[in-house]
Write a structure and sequence with these properties.
The complex is a heterodimer. Helices cover 33% and strands 42% of the residues of chain A. Chain A is of the alpha+beta class. Chain A has two domains: 79 residues, Alpha-Beta Plaits; 77 residues, ACT-like. Chain A, domain 2 (Alpha-Beta Plaits). In chain A, the strands form two sheets. A four-stranded antiparallel sheet of chain A has the order 2-3-1-4, covered by helices on one side. Chain A has a four-stranded antiparallel sheet with strand order 6-7-5-8, with helices on one face. The longest helix of chain B is centred in the N-terminal third of the chain and has 15 residues. Classes of the chains: A alpha+beta, B alpha/beta.
Chain lengths: 163, 586
Amino acid sequence: MQNKRWISLFVENEVGVLARISGLFSGKSYNLNSLTAGTTEDATISRMTISLTSDDQTFEQIKKQLNRSIEVIKVIDFSETDIHMKELMFVKICNCTGEDMMEINCIIDALNLELIDSNTHTALLECVQTENKNNDLIDLLVKNFGGRVEIIRGGSVAIEVIK
Amino acid sequence: MKISGADLFVKALMEEKVDILFAYPGGQAIELFNALYGVESIKVILSRHEQGLVHAADGYARSTGRVGVCLVTSGPGATNLVTGIATANYDSVPLVCFTGQVPTYLIGNDAFQEVDIVGIVRSISKYAITVRNREDLGTIIKKAFYVAKSGKPGVVVVDLPKDIQQKLGSDLYPEQVEIRGYKPNTAVHSEQIRKALDCLNASRKPIFLLGGGVNISRANKEMTLLAEKTGIPVITTIMGKGSIPTNHPLYVGNLGIHGSYAANNAINECDVLFSIGVRFNDRITGKISEFAKHATIIHIDIDPASISRNIVVDIPIVADARNAIGALLDKSISLDIEDWKEQISSWKQLHPHDRSQNSVSGVTPQAIIHEINALFDNVIITTDVGQNQLWTTQFLEITETKQMLTSGGLGTMGYGFPAAMGAKLGNPKTDVISICGDGGMQMNIQEMATAIVHELPIIICILNNGYLGNVRQWQEMFFSKRYSSTCMKRRESCPVICNTPSEDCPAYTPDFIRLAESYGAKGIRVQRVEDIKPALLEAKAAIKNPTVIEFIIEREENVWPIVPPGNSLADMIVGGENRNAEQKVD
């Protein structure tokens, strides 16, 4: 069955490692939804959060293939683990009327978003939420402000909960 | 002491005991070649094309079990390695390939002869890296050799920018390296071994399926003992051929789309499939849902990613084949499988491989290979790709003193002849034969010069049918005999549509005999069956020079049996002379 999965990956922080990992997905036709990468407290190690959709057998194979890469230090399967996960998303809404602005403010208050920049007819929202909540927000904004919404998403980062 | 990067490169090769370097110079590798000049312990083999040298390094590595080492320049030198890198990596051959590169400060500028070779080989190598700091050079080379030969062996590419080669730095070459993300597992999990044994002991129709992993781990002796101890019949993939001697009573044959009738039937009927060092690729499984569907599948492999990828495995064992076989040898196994063995014997008798071609007399592939079997005791045989490979993997006898090298995974035409050069360089006292077709031989024919200048008495057997025979056979069987672009005799004067080879066809070009002679090699053309043996004996007696023997074989000769694409292994077309046998049975 096709399911959404999460992997946290520790890799050597060296030139080309991102290409190696993303190339593995494209080369073997694995379905990659999002990939974020950044250095850790140890500058020689990068940590990636990968979200993908696959069936069980393919997912096992993906983990094995990742483990097989020389640059990969550790593969953690987050699919069955309790995790904290957030995605950064910016939303710019243009050509707003005064009424639009009021509505936007309501949405900001209701969803705990942040207005980080604006002028009289443009609003820029910072949304740090789960991927699903960001999806819902996009649906809402497109419905209400269709054609005037510009979106940039960062992909998710995730970490295990403290037990 | 401070030394240049190029000098450290040479020092590293010496520390790694590299005796032969397969190489071709160029502008961005000139410093490295300069450092190699006059170094006596490293013999540099200058090929005539980079593809030739990488296949030669591959043949050297497969035949000796040591790491093959290549050195080429940047840009086209590097890209010419690509097919050879993929070939070797696919068959788990340990190679370290050094490529020159433009200086670090020019990388990304579209400099002359600049390519991102690390980017190009990313998906066809085990590891690839550009050295960006002179101080990392020693560690990276050490790491390259370690990664190439450990675990599931493979190809490592080390890209060396010119300024790194020139820059002075430490002369230290580390004795070992630690790679935190790379810990190949070779030890055997005893609980899994116990499960496998329980499964075996309860079986009535068990079979061993052995792949290239058994040969790579050099577990042939142990495997023969295990087969004898258990009495379980042995089937191999073409990469696993020779895992136990092919003349052993327990050896059944190859399986797969050109596998033997007995082997393919045994796979269908077995109740336990004990597989070692295989990856169940599509050439051996046929229709995957039908493959060994009655069997419990045990799979030993050093690569966890090979387990349960194509075939779902019941008992996985991640381990080096030799260690695992050793662990099994220590255990007691008692089986009562005489009926099963008799069944397999009767399949073998019904459709022996020996009659699996169209022609029954004359210069047949089978007659040639049988003669090779009879005349050579201590020999390495390389195949090219296509019908020549399939016939060789069917008919060739392999014992403890005979080895076969073939491009099983990638199926690279042009592999066989340069690989034979590498094998000869690594095994100067062993006879080396390259069995190839007229198509594949022309893909790296320029290496004739290399074989001559390095005095390599290789025997090159060209099976010339004037066709790209394997594709032609498919066109005959599955494409209504539309021989599209497979005739090697075809010229402008030929009709647009032609599928009827005859005496009137244009002459073959090149004339392989004159071509061999122009290089300074011996050329012999064989057109009569009685000339096969004298030609091989004459070639065997050569001390310095290669011999080209061109065997003119039946133009539309086929490889039988064949499992048509998409079919189960049970639905094979037996073909050849066996077609008559089939009718008699019915």
